[in-house]
Design a protein that fits this description.
It is a single chain. The chain is α/β, with parallel strands linked by helices. The chain has one domain: HUPs (Rossmann fold, 3-Layer(aba) Sandwich), CATH 3.40.50.620. 52% of the residues lie in helices and 12% in strands. It contains nine helices and seven strands, in the order ααααβββαβαβαβαβα. The strands form two sheets. A five-stranded parallel sheet has the order 5-4-1-6-7, sandwiched between helices. It has a two-stranded antiparallel ribbon with strand order 2-3. α3 packs across α9 and α5 packs across α6. It is elongated, with a radius of gyration of 20 Å.
Length: 245
């Protein structure tokens, strides 16, 4: 695990709330303060596990994608951003659910637009093949589309953008569709925009905006994970703007 991944796991909710609750008895002398801090942390974890909070965090990112279509250029390529991998019993790996959703969306767009495809993503661990190579094989075998470019060095979204823009730039391509999830699109557009590439967002899907119905307030573990993903995306956006100005 990289230092960046470790920091994201420890310093962002919900694990941050758990660590605060565990540390409170050690750092605070007044019992009522400890009780208040522990209760607040547990309430925070419960709220992040609800479909309402997770959904609001997600739609706060996705709303920036809708209508974000540039003018003055026509896209001449499709860039599919890699996500995660899933291990097989024989030791191999295949695209994980998020990567597979992006491949499906990219394949659908490629058939409709007739544009060449670039897949970008480096190794997810020291002993793993680049995820872009794995996704390229699936794109060919499952969807019948052979990518023109396979970028295998990128370790994060910023490198996805820089490396992809460099590959496309060598062929005179200055505008492209970007295929990723709606909640990941704002950070992707920010990163690709800094390379000078004109970006046409093509999100895999836009989810329902929770309206506060009863079922939106029932905590579930999968929504806790979703909240963490959304908080990480916002943290990444803030980091990009602080670091790059």
């Amino acid at each position: 695990m990289s230092l960046q991944s470790l920091a994201a796991a420890l310093l962002l909710p919900p694990l941050l709330f758990v660590l605060v609750a565990l540390a409170a008895p050690l750092l605070m002398r007044r019992r009522w303060c400890v009780t208040l801090l522990v209760m607040a942390s547990m309430v925070g974890v419960l709220l992040l596990a609800t479909p309402f909070v997770a959904g609001k965090l997600r739609t706060s990112l996705e709303r920036h994608v809708v209508g974000a279509i540039p003018s003055g250029s026509d896209p001449r390529a499709i860039v599919i951003l890699a996500a995660e991998a899933a291990p097989l019993a024989d030791g191999g790996i295949v695209p994980g659910p998020l990567s597979l959703e992006r491949l499906e969306a990219g394949a659908r767009l490629a058939r409709r637009a007739g544009l060449p495809v670039l897949i970008t993503g480096g190794p997810l661990s020291a002993d793993a093949p680049p995820i872009a190579e794995v996704m390229a094989g699936t794109l060919k075998e499952v969807f019948g589309i052979i990518p023109r470019w396979v970028e295998t060095a990128a370790r994060d979204t910023a490198e996805n953008a820089r490396n992809s823009a460099a590959l496309l730039g060598r062929e005179g391509i200055s505008a492209a569709y970007i295929v990723t999830h709606g909640w990941h699109m704002p950070r992707s557009v920010e990163a690709f925009g800094r390379t000078g590439l004109v970006v046409f967002p093509f999100p895999t899907r836009i989810s329902r905006n929770p309206d506060g119905r009863v079922t939106d307030w029932i905590p579930r573990p999968d929504h806790l994970a979703e909240s963490w993903f959304m908080i990480r995306e916002w943290a990444g956006l803030v980091l990009y703007r602080l670091r790059d100005g």
